[in-house]
Amino acid sequence: MEIKVMKNILDANNSLAEKNRSFFKDRKITAINVMASPGAGKTSIILKIIEALGNDIGISVIEGDIASSIDADKIDGLGIPVVQINTGGGCHLDANMIKAAVDDLRPGHDSIIFIENVGNLVCPSSFDLGEGMRMVIASVPEGHDKPYKYISMFEGADVVILNKTDLIPYIDFDSESFYKGLRSLNEKAPLFEVSCRTGEGVEELAKWLKNAASGKNI
Ligand SMILES: Nc1nc2c(ncn2[C@@H]2O[C@H](COP(=O)(O)OP(=O)(O)O)[C@@H](O)[C@H]2O)c(=O)[nH]1
Ligand SMILES: [Mg+2]
């Protein structure tokens, strides 16, 4: 019985997600579902990419959090259109929430929309939002074993970022084990090593994303 209820919820979400996907596709909007643990650097990476891309491309942001507008305030500080969704305890965003936020934001044609999901490596991977790209961020202090434990998150990624590389000298992080775990699940997703603190790797990531948004490398 429980399984059937869950299936109904996912079916309803999936059909709404397809509507969102058509909306984005018709307008050539690159919708990026940004997923990671709390504190891995989702907001920091979005901010860094916004800075790196400058005025090259239109950008808007949907911020998902259980509570507060802390992240949306940071995005707003850069003058970027942003909507904050508070899930009030919910551990993931769903397609219905995205539809409402997009109606509010009205993103332009050929733009990028970042959707920062609730910090969590489990539930967000089951809920399609209608995005065109899944960006999964891991960070050095979380440890190298995350791909082995959160399989569907890393399996479904279109791009993977390893953030906080500035901390590698201080942390027992086995890069080889991380790559091996990731590649056993996902051979295709490009991996970018980034430090939001030093800026290392940010330009390369932003350049790749700009090309992806213009259909050059996806
Ligand atoms: N040392 C270091 N700290 C970082 C880096 N990126 C983010 N942080 C810090 O990690 C904390 C969480 O970052 P945030 O972007 O809010 O993570 P989120 O919860 O995934 O959105 C903040 O204190 C950031 O300043 C990084 O590359 N290196
Ligand atoms: Mg955040």
Automatic annotation (TrEMBL):
<dbReference type="InterPro" id="IPR003495">
    <property type="entry name" value="CobW/HypB/UreG_nucleotide-bd"/>
</dbReference>
<dbReference type="InterPro" id="IPR027417">
    <property type="entry name" value="P-loop_NTPase"/>
</dbReference>
<dbReference type="GO" id="GO:0008270">
    <property type="term" value="F:zinc ion binding"/>
</dbReference>
<keyword id="KW-0342">GTP-binding</keyword>
<dbReference type="InterPro" id="IPR004392">
    <property type="entry name" value="Hyd_mat_HypB"/>
</dbReference>
<protein>
    <submittedName>
        <fullName>Hydrogenase nickel incorporation protein HypB</fullName>
    </submittedName>
</protein>
<dbReference type="Pfam" id="PF02492">
    <property type="entry name" value="cobW"/>
</dbReference>
<keyword id="KW-0547">Nucleotide-binding</keyword>
<dbReference type="GO" id="GO:0051604">
    <property type="term" value="P:protein maturation"/>
</dbReference>
<dbReference type="GO" id="GO:0016151">
    <property type="term" value="F:nickel cation binding"/>
</dbReference>
<dbReference type="GO" id="GO:0005525">
    <property type="term" value="F:GTP binding"/>
</dbReference>
<keyword id="KW-0862">Zinc</keyword>
<keyword id="KW-0378">Hydrolase</keyword>
<comment type="similarity">
    <text>Belongs to the SIMIBI class G3E GTPase family. HypB/HupM subfamily.</text>
</comment>
<keyword id="KW-0479">Metal-binding</keyword>
<dbReference type="GO" id="GO:0003924">
    <property type="term" value="F:GTPase activity"/>
</dbReference>
<keyword id="KW-0533">Nickel</keyword>
<feature type="domain" description="CobW/HypB/UreG nucleotide-binding">
    <location>
        <begin position="32"/>
        <end position="192"/>
    </location>
</feature>
